[in-house]
Amino acid sequence: MAERIIPLLDQRNTSRPLAVPTVPLRLDGGQGLTDRLGRPLHDLRISVTDRCNFRCSYCMPKEVFDKAYPYLPQSALLSFEEITRLAKQFVGLGVRKIRLTGGEPLLRKNIEVLIAQLAQLRTPDGQPLDLTLTTNGSLLARKAQALKDAGLQRVTVSLDGLDDAVFRQMNDVDFPVAEVLAGIDAAQSAGLGNIKVNMVVKRGTNEDQILPMARHFKGSGHVLRFIEYMDVGATNGWRMNEVLPSAELVQRISAELPLQPLEAAAPGETAERWAYADGTGEVGFISSVTQAFCGDCNRARLSTEGQLYLCLFASHGHDLRSLLRSGASDADLTAAIGHIWQGRSDRYSQLRHALPADANGAGPRRVEMSYIGG
Ligand code: SAM
Ligand code: SF4
Ligand code: SF4
Fold it and tell me: 3-state class of 90 per DSSP?
């Protein structure tokens, strides 16, 4: 087998220095804050740690994320108070949904304290936020009740197969399926509603798990979502020929379990929804590679060390942490975030095909997903 060379390129801290804007923020046309392509700011994903106890090859391959990998020191991380203060400004600018992610968010010590703080935030018209978290499920059985008690409303669990051998190979730390399934059960028992299960599909690796996963979660009340393997980061050795297009998945599943398309529940939704024709629930398909959904992308990302990223594929962030630590007022922070969003024109997935690509079809090198938050 040919040796795989994984370039290690540290894209962290390539942020642009931020100054307090001197021009006041203008919100035109009564539409609230929009970017240069008319997209509102609605979702905020916050990475609370760049560490993980799994080594999924598509995200944190073991060859790169080994003992010598320079994870961020504690002092570089935003504190819970800093995260909450920034989140509050984002909510003032239109954010209605916050997702905690990472790395593995349940590895962040006392994460439930942060959840309790975020659960207190209210929209300008007094509504609570849609507060959720994406986890690999390994610690969920232990933590589900505390998360729920702190104010978490729902949870998304990543699971790439039901066959133990395939799953252990995907997570690459020999973690068993049964413990993730126990985590999902615990989340349900704790009252975390609307549970979603994310499965990244890699051709030739876990494609034989598509139907077993569909059968398992059909009728369970949990929504399984298939994610196309994406060219995020610079280390996963992504190849276009390992991507299984969602359209093919719909056909494969429908041949045994007939599906019919559903309308999107909300604008900017990442997953295309399909219902089982027999009324036993639905599945989702996140087709970031074959069907770009940049047109209504309303997501901002806050990295573990407080860099604001406007796109999952952005090559640099905007340094909110320095601004925060320089003594900026809430009004300064709001103005800075608002101006950054107004200048946004990112639409990487739509442009992917036109960008200079490497031999595998991957575009320019970017920051890692574990740092920026998936
Ligand atoms: N550790 C948590 C987890 O795995 O759920 C949260 C962070 S993880 C980066 C968030 C999501 O990104 C997971 O559902 C994961 O499967 C997905 N992901 C990571 N790398 C990916 C890739 N190259 N292509 C598609 N999805 C990816
Ligand atoms: Fe960890 Fe999640 Fe990345 Fe897998 S996808 S390595 S669980 S952060
Ligand atoms: Fe949004 Fe960037 Fe993904 Fe397009 S490529 S949907 S702009 S995060």
Answer: helix
Residues having CB closer than 6 A to ligand 1 are: 52, 58-59, 101-102, 104, 134-136, 158, 198, 200, 227, 229-230, 232, 236, 369-370, 374
Q: How many residues does the chain have?
A: 374
* Ligand 2 centroid from CA 175, angstroms: 12
Spell out the domains of the chain, with CATH numbers in brackets.
41-372 (3.20.20.70)
pTM: 0.93
Burial, 345: exposed, middle or buried (Cβ in 10 Å; 0-12, 13-18, 19+)? Answer: exposed
pLDDT at 1 (0 to 100):
40
Q: Is the pLDDT of residue 7 over 60?
A: no
Q: Which burial class, exposed, middle or buried, applies to 290 when counting CB atoms under 10 A from its CB (0-12, 13-18, 19+)? A: middle
pLDDT at 299 over 90: yes
H or E stretch covering 342? helix 330-342
Percent of the chain with pLDDT over 70: 91
Amino acid letter, residue 86: L
